[in-house]
Model the fold of this input.
Amino acid sequence: MKKKIIYILLFFVISIPSYSSEKIVYLDVEKIMQESVAGKNIIAKIKKKRETSISMFKKKEKEIIEKEKKLISQKNVLSEEEFKKKIQDLRADISKYQKERNKASNDITRTRIKASTNLIKKLTPILESYSKENSIRIIIQKKHIVMGSKEDDITKEILNLVNEKIKSIKID
Done:
């Protein structure tokens, strides 16, 4: 008899939260980053910055290759000491080129992360007000969900709110 009472009480305790008016929903943050006006703006600016960087480094790479070809063609004409000095200069140029390229790549990555962080910071108040208005207890990122009902996906509604309230994100 005691076991039946414990099971009945346990059943009621477990089932009470499922009947509450507050709910748990999920959100695809990556989709908002990719499809919102501000997210597309970030992607376009970073893409432009990356393309500019790539074209600049291709130009520098061509210059280094030309220098190398010229040095190889002068190998028999130059003295051994002069040739070694020019090789050292070429190696220094290559090292400088690689450092600059790595720095530019790191700068672009930092810019992307900073812009994404700024977008998420601006997204947070929108999510807070949306959750209060719609009696939502928890909002979970979609990537952390194994399975969920389509009715619990609020991505489209939040995407519309983000497009209304956030037009662009400032990038360095």
Q: What stands out?
A: The longest helix spans residues 80-133. The helical segments are 2-15, 29-35, 37-73, 80-133, 155-165. The chain has one domain: 22-165.
